[in-house]
Design goal:
The complex is a heterodimer of chains A (116) and B (114).
Chain A: E1 3-5, E2 10-14, E3 19-21, E4 24-26, E5 32-38, E6 44-50, E7 56-58, E8 64-68, E9 73-78, E10 87-94, E11 105-106, E12 110-115
Parallel strand pairs in A: 2-12
Antiparallel strand pairs in A: 1-4, 3-9, 5-6, 5-10, 7-8, 8-9, 10-11, 10-12
Chain B: E1 4-7, E2 10-13, E3 19-25, E4 31-37, E5 43-51, E6 54-57, E7 65-68, E8 74-78, E9 87-94, E10 104-105, E11 109-113
Parallel strand pairs in B: 2-11
Antiparallel strand pairs in B: 1-3, 3-8, 4-5, 4-9, 5-6, 7-8, 9-10, 9-11
Classes of the chains: A mainly beta (116), B mainly beta (114).
């Protein structure tokens, strides 16, 4: 079965520190992978996406993610976190003949807290 | 630049009442989706619509009905609300041109059922 796992429910980092949020996927073929961010009381905003090509993808707000097939991972990174990055982050995946960005499976989310 | 608009933003219902959540998108997208978000469970797909006039069940369709009124609008109806349907509901839309197109989300409807 296709699945997306975010092992960390909560993460706390200091402002200016680096950040890595973990995402593991389980798909038979090359998956389509997305990272979304949700600020309190808001909808989900797309940070970046991967479907083929370069395994390191750049997104908005200084985020990047690396696709590692051997580890079934698509971890989100940022070199220096800002207080405004405090939010909940969701990894999502799709795949198969009718998949891609159509039928997504979401991880359970990682809540990021930034200490000043 | 409205994107995906959901109404209402907040609603409180009593058990057994009915309610329709509205969603409209102005991006000329083909596909539309309804999700519910519960703490610790991420987003779960309730129903989706690949085009006007077509709808399909998602992971958690029980207790819900949907209508794709036209290309812009996709409504979600609770016929007899239950406390287990207390949740945040998100509508999303997507352009189907290529498989890597992402879904775009509204700001959600926060629904409480007493």
């Amino acid at each position: 079965a296709q699945s997306v796992t975010q092992p960390d429910i909560h993460i706390t980092v200091s402002e200016g520190a680096s950040l890595e949020l973990r995402c593991n996927y389980s798909y038979g073929a090359t998956p389509y992978l997305f990272w979304y961010v949700q600020s309190p009381g808001q909808g989900l905003q797309l940070l970046l996406k991967y479907f083929s090509g370069d395994t390191l993808v750049q997104g908005i707000k200084g985020f990047e993610a690396e696709f590692k097939r051997s580890q079934s991972s698509f971890n989100l990174r940022k070199p220096s976190v800002h207080w405004s990055d405090a939010a909940e982050y969701f990894c999502a995946g799709g795949g198969g003949l009718t998949g891609g960005g159509n039928k997504l499976t979401f991880g359970t989310g990682t809540q990021l807290k930034v200490e000043l | 630049n409205a994107g995906v608009t959901q109404t209402p933003k907040f609603q409180v219902l009593k058990t057994g009442q009915s309610m329709t959540l509205q969603c409209a998108q102005d991006m000329n997208h083909n596909s539309m989706y309804w999700y519910r978000q519960d703490p610790g469970m991420g987003l779960r797909l309730i129903y989706y619509s690949a085009s006007e006039g077509t709808t399909d069940k998602g992971e958690v369709p029980n207790g819900y009905n949907v209508s794709r009124l036209n290309k812009r609008e996709f409504s979600l109806r609770l016929e007899s609300a239950a406390p287990s349907q207390t949740s945040v509901y998100f509508c999303a839309s997507r352009f189907d041109g290529t498989r890597n197109q992402p879904q775009h989300f509204g700001d959600g409807t926060r629904l409480s059922i007493l």
